[in-house]
Amino acid sequence: MTAHFYGTKKYVLNVLQRPDLHQHHADLYAASVVLQITYGKPAPSSFEDPAIVAIHKIADRFLGMLKPGAYLVGRLPWLRYVPGYAPEIKRYRKEELEVHLGQVDATRRSVEEGSDLPSFVRYLVENPDSHGLDEETLAYLAGPCTTSVGMYTIVMAAALFPEEQEKVLAEIDGVFGGQKALRWRPILPICLYHQAFANFVWNGYHIPAGATIIGNNWGISRDTEVFPDPETFNPQRWLNDQGQMRPQNEIRFFTYGFGRRVCPGQYVASRSLFVTMSLLFWSFRISQDPSQPIDSNA
Ligand code: HEM
């Protein structure tokens, strides 16, 4: 939790100084939490810090490559063996690996120099027998994240729905308000690519082994049977008549994906959103600049 609290104070102070750059501050916060938890790296204070620049460059490329149809090799896997196909992918991989290996080396050095900061990579390098991963795989385990987009979305929802902001503030209930914002505008409109490893039938459709399946978060968020009037921002829809959370078989949180590939970072991300947004709403009232109306679908 230390990573969350230190970074949160800094995020709120940054918003105080430059509210117009709130998205940058959220990016810096989210990347700092990942660097701290993964490598035990003290939170960088500037958006221009090389580690922060590198993490964002990797995240941007990664998200671009994930777009369905971005590369034909997704549909024609044999293309990967064609010499010269998409040379930038190989270049990106080389550059990313250098960044990740550099961070693993820096963690190793800081442990040798007596640092007592705990981290995920520190555990892995100190306990090689517990996982048996090679250096490259170990370096890749730490990835970029999407928490900051969740932060912008909640800030945007607060500006557009001031009455709901007041209700959230009354209970400092980042859970329903935050959850609601992520239902209203899912951070990742689609999940990652999955592959069926056996033939199966779903709702009358034959899905062959090897087919690519992509969860449609945006479609789920617009399912009027579960979320009637889906464009309405209404945190109360998560509660029953007694004010208690409705059971999972009635309404379910889907923003982090589902099944065996569900987001492993969801607990870190939810805590980050809860802590940052609670302190932000406690510190400020967020409102829309009437001269520049927000386009919530942009
Ligand atoms: C609000 C923030 C976040 C959201 C909305 C989010 C959402 C998602 C979604 C939708 C998936 C795909 C799940 C699927 O295909 O079924 C995913 C996968 C993943 N997420 Fe997150 N995530 C967030 C934060 C994080 C953080 C902070 C980390 C790491 C520290 C992380 C690490 C990962 C990893 C490694 C995967 C790939 C899992 C796999 O393919 O097995 N995420 N995330």
TrEMBL record:
Record key words, sorted: Heme, Iron, Metal-binding, Monooxygenase, Oxidoreductase
Q: State one molecular function term (GO).
A: iron ion binding
Coiled-coil segments, which residues?
none
Name listed for the protein in its UniProt record: Cytochrome P450
Q: Where does heme bind?
A: C263
An example Pfam family from this entry, by short name, is p450
What SUPFAM superfamilies does the record point to? Cytochrome P450
Tell me the organism's taxonomic lineage: Eukaryota, Fungi, Dikarya, Basidiomycota, Agaricomycotina
Q: What are the required cofactors?
A: heme
Pathway it works in: Secondary metabolite biosynthesis
- What range does the record give for the signal peptide? none
The record lists the organism as Coniophora puteana (strain RWD-64-598) (Brown rot fungus)
